[in-house]
Each structure stands twice: as C-alpha cells, then as structure tokens.
Design a protein that fits this description.
Chain lengths: 225, 209
C-alpha cells in the first residue's frame, strides 16, 4: 500500500467524519474537529518558528549592526514567554506593550488612510455616478443617503432634555431605522455570497469523496469484474 | 518598583512606539519611516513568540482536560498538534523529509479545513430557515430577500429571467448593499480610530497585569 493510497483513505475518512455533522453533533465530528485544531496549530507554529529562525539566525551570526537590531526583538520575544508563568508574567508586559502600541498605530493609520478617507470620499463622489446618467445619479443618491442612515443606526446616545429627545427620536431615530434596513441589505448580500461560496466548496468536497472512494476501490482491486 | 514594571514602563513603551510608528505613516521624513519599518519588524518577531506562547498554553489547558473523564478529545488534540509540529518542522528543516510535510498537508490538513469550510453552507441554510421560522419581521424579510437575490443572480438560469436576475443582483450589490457595507466600514474605521487613540494616549492599557 503506497503512501498516496493511505493518504487517500485517511483524507476521505476525515472528510466523512466532518460531514457527519449534517446528521447532528456527534462524537465522530468532535473527533475530526479536535484533529483539525491540533493539526492546524502544530502546522502554524512550525511555519512561524522556522520563519523567525531563518530571519534571526543569519543576523545573529553576522558581525554587522543587524545583530543588535535582531537581538532586541529576540529578548522581548523571550520576555513574552514569561507570560506563561503567573509569577513572572509582569516581565512580559514590555513585549505586549510594544505589540499593542505598534498594532494600535498601524490599525489607526490603516483605518484613517485605508478606510475612513477613501470611503467618505467615495460616498460624496456623485460625479462618478453621474456618468451613467439620471439612473446613475439616483443610484448615487441612494448610496449616499443609505450610508448616512447606516451610520446613524449606530447612534445610541440621545439628549436628556425631553423636547430635544423627542426631536432626536423623530429625526435621527427614524433615519437610524432606515439605516438598519440598509445594514440588513448588506448583511443579506454577504450572507448570500458566503452561502454560494461555501456551497461550491461543499460540492467540491462531495466530489472529492466520490472520486476518492472510486480510486480506493480501483487501487485495492475491488473494482474489477 | 512593582508599579514601575507593571504600569509606567510598559505604558511608556506602548505610547512611545505607537507614536513613532504613527508619525512614520503621517510625515514624509525618511528617518521616521525607517524607524517605523524597524518597529513593525520587531512587532512581527514578537508576534511569532506570542503564537508559540499560545501553542504552549493550548497544550497546558488540554493536558489538564485530558486527565479528566471524557478527556480523550483533548489527548487526541495534543497528539495531533505534536505530530503536526514534528512533521512540518522536519519537512521544513530537512529537504529529504519534505514529502512528509507535503503528505500531511495534502491528506490531513487540506481535507479537514476544506470540509469544515464546506459545512458553512449547511449551517447558514439552517440558520436562515430558523430565522424565518421564529422571527417574521420586516428586517428579517429584507435580509432574506437580499440573500435570495444574490443567490438567484449567481445561478446560470436561461434568459430572459436569468439576465433579469443577474442585473437585479448587480444593482442590489452595487447600490443598497454597498450603502450598508460602507456604513459598516466607516463605523468600524471610526471605532478603530478611537481605540487606537485611547491606546496611544495611555487611557487604555490592555498590556498591564
């Protein structure tokens, strides 16, 4: 029995174990799920370890200034491992602080330059919609009003003064309700796309099982008349 | 001393590095940009150590569970994680053993991950059915109608109904769904901006023990 044939049998079996969830939560599915978590985590850690070693080791072995540049994150990384021991976990705070600080700055810059500015500019660019004529302009207005209403759907605070609160509920509250419908439209479209994509994968997996079983039968000689 | 190690110094590190990286993004100064790149490189290396720490934590949690009744799944998880780690490390370090890593990826990891992704179709269909059964509101109907238009517009149906559905899907995704998605994106962006500013001003200290 070749390694490929063993792999084919194991892979087909694992696929069937996961698909058994269609019949309801059961021990076979839970077994497959734990196998998946273990295999994925082990694979990820191996890839990460080797990638870091390949980055650090050549720099550490050289006499260039790169040695110091690599030594600092290496020490911070080792300090981070102290987080695994409650008694010394405070020493890992420096590494976590650097991760959080750099992460926050990258996220902030990304949110500002990559999301808020371009998306806001796109909402206001009615001239692009106008190229498609009157229908395009109407579509552009729907997108603009829809985006504003969707943003107002996230306004949870309201004035305390009763008169102002009534005005607020009559304007922002109503627009927020309309915004919720736009949000649900977006979620529904995302849901439909996810369902379509996962159905394609499901068909692929069922096909792989059928082909796998056929190949196994042929390989072990049961397919012949 | 304890207060210094646990709060003051880590906060200074977070605020200092965060501001340097942010300035590197916002100002076109080559020195700041190289400092930004260097700090991001450091963060990537430290994040790799965080991943390794997470791996050991997973092993520790599941080794505790494995000793309890019904802990067979945890034992299997530990065994699979160690085998996966060993095989992948061997394949990456020794070219002669590369076939082991390829075999593991092709026949174990790939079928498991793809089939779990495929299960999403089943889970989503059941969720939609339950939603329609238990909550009959305008919002739910809008949600399911949007999903239906997108699904029907993807099907290769014959013309003229097929063409009409394709156009409807295109309009639905590009106009009302885009408005909603843009609202979500800008909302998430504003939230990220606020959280980032709170960390960079030292108001939030998620790294302090």
């Amino acid at each position: 029995m070749t390694a490929d044939l063993i792999g084919l049998i194991v892979g087909t079996l694992l696929t069937l174990l996961v698909l058994s969830y269609i019949l309801g939560d059961n021990p076979l599915y839970r077994l497959a799920l734990h196998l998946l978590v273990g295999a994925t985590v082990g694979y990820g850690v191996a890839i990460t370890t080797v990638t870091v070693l390949r980055t650090i080791l050549p720099a550490l072995q050289s006499d260039s200034p790169d040695r110091v540049r690599v030594l600092i994150p290496l020490i911070l990384g080792i300090l981070l491992l102290f987080k695994g021991f409650p008694r010394w976990s405070a020493w890992g705070n420096f590494s976590t602080a650097l991760l959080v600080g750099v992460g926050a700055a990258v996220a902030l810059g990304g949110a500002l330059v990559g999301t808020i500015i371009p998306q806001t500019a796109a909402v206001g660019s009615l001239d692009i919609w106008l190229r498609e004529g009157l229908a395009g302009l109407i579509n552009g207005l729907i997108v603009m009003i829809g985006t504003i209403c969707a943003l107002l759907a996230f306004a949870f605070a309201a004035p305390r003064q009763p008169t102002l609160r009534r005005i607020w509920n009559g304007s922002v509250g109503v627009l927020g309700q309309v915004g919720r419908l736009f949000l649900l439209t977006a979620f529904g479209a995302a849901f439909g796309m996810a369902l379509t994509a996962s159905l394609t994968v499901l068909v692929g997996r069922v096909y792989a099982v059928v082909i796998g079983v056929q190949q196994i039968i042929t390989a072990v000689g049961m397919g012949g008349g | 001393m304890d207060w210094l190690v646990k709060r003051t110094l880590p906060t200074s590190v977070a605020v200092g590095t965060g501001l340097l990286v942010l300035l590197g993004y916002l100002l076109p100064v080559p020195l700041l940009q190289s400092v930004r790149d260097e700090l991001i490189r450091w963060a990537v290396i430290i994040a790799a150590f965080a991943f390794i720490l997470g791996f050991f934590n997973l092993l520790r949690v599941h080794s505790g569970r494995a000793r309890k009744p019904g802990g067979i799944y945890s034992a299997i998880l530990i065994l699979t994680a160690l085998v996966s780690l060993g095989l992948t490390l061997a394949a990456l370090m020794l070219p002669s053993l590369r076939f082991l890593g390829d075999w593991w990826f092709r026949y174990i990891l790939s079928p498991l991950q793809a089939t779990v992704a495929a299960l999403i179709a089943f889970v989503l269909a059941v969720a939609a059915f339950r939603l329609l059964r238990h909550r009959r509101e305008v919002g739910v109907l809008v949600f399911l109608a949007a999903a239906l238009f997108v699904i029907l517009g993807t099907l290769p149906l014959p013309a003229p109904a097929g063409d009409w559905l394709i156009n409807l899907r295109k309009w639905w995704v590009n106009v009302p769904a885009m408005a909603g998605m843009r609202g979500i994106l800008i909302g998430v962006g504003l939230g990220t901006l606020l959280i980032g500013l709170r960390v960079l001003t030292g108001s939030d200290r998620p790294f302090s023990d």
